Each structure stands twice: as C-alpha cells, then as structure tokens.
C-alpha cells in the first residue's frame, strides 16, 4: 500500500503533506524506514520530510495506542484551565504529549483548537469531543478507557 501511495502522490505539487497524511491514515503512523522513499518520490531531502513530520503534531512516527486523547492547548482552552488539564493528563497517563502509555491503550496528543472554544477547556477522545472538562472529568474518561481495555483483554 505504501508503494501505491508513493505512486499516487509523486507528481502532485505540494503533495508531501497529503502523502504523509495518507500514509498515516493507512498504517497508523509514518515508519522511519519509509522516509528515504518519500523524499525520493517527492524530490526533497529526508530532512525536509522529517521537518514536516515534526511540525504537524498529528503526524506520528510510531504506532499509536488503541485510543487517542487530544488535549486542546490553544488560547481559549489555556485561559480556562487548559494548563492544569495538560498537567493532569500527563500525571494520569504517565507519559508526555506525543507518547503512548506503556500498556498501549492511550496515546496523548496536543491539538490546537477543537472548534469548541465557547465550551473550553476541551478534549477529544478518539472521535468524540468533550466540553468544559475538569480534572475529575478527565480522570473519569481515562478510567473508562482503562476499564474497557481490561474488559477486552
Ligand atoms: S481553543 Fe480549545 S477548543 Fe478552541
């Protein structure tokens, strides 16, 4: 599938980011060993590919967890308790942003506005957005994920 995506985007002007997004959509992450081939077909350097991957927070270079928790770190959420929520997420999960818990259940990511500013602070868990999240609410969300992981183990 990677080879097919490389062919699909190789002649697309400005196609590097869409290609990276397509690879992540397909594989769940962008394997480091794919970077040289990506650079070759997009006619750029591997350093440029790495630069784009590191710039966009939602691109990852390792497989993510079964669930993704995104904490909004943009202005409105920051002004309404977002910083405390960030610290809480790190404490409860035991990982920093961009990483996955040791049990492989939850990946913690930053996001810069979920379009839910009027009800900030906000987080997104997989495809669901939660508004006015406080420490207790976040702890409850994380506990439910962990419980669900135990139930399916
Ligand atoms: S700033 Fe957080 S939802 Fe917009």
From TrEMBL:
GO terms of molecular function: 2 iron, 2 sulfur cluster binding; metal ion binding; NADH dehydrogenase activity
Protein name in the entry: NADH-quinone oxidoreductase subunit E
SUPFAM superfamilies, A to Z: Thioredoxin-like
Co-factor requirement: [2Fe-2S] cluster
Organism superkingdom: Bacteria
Positions with a binding annotation for [2Fe-2S] cluster: 72, 77, 113, 117
Cited PANTHER family: NADH DEHYDROGENASE [UBIQUINONE] FLAVOPROTEIN 2, MITOCHONDRIAL, NADH DEHYDROGENASE UBIQUINONE FLAVOPROTEIN 2, MITOCHONDRIAL
Matching Pfam families: 2Fe-2S_thioredx
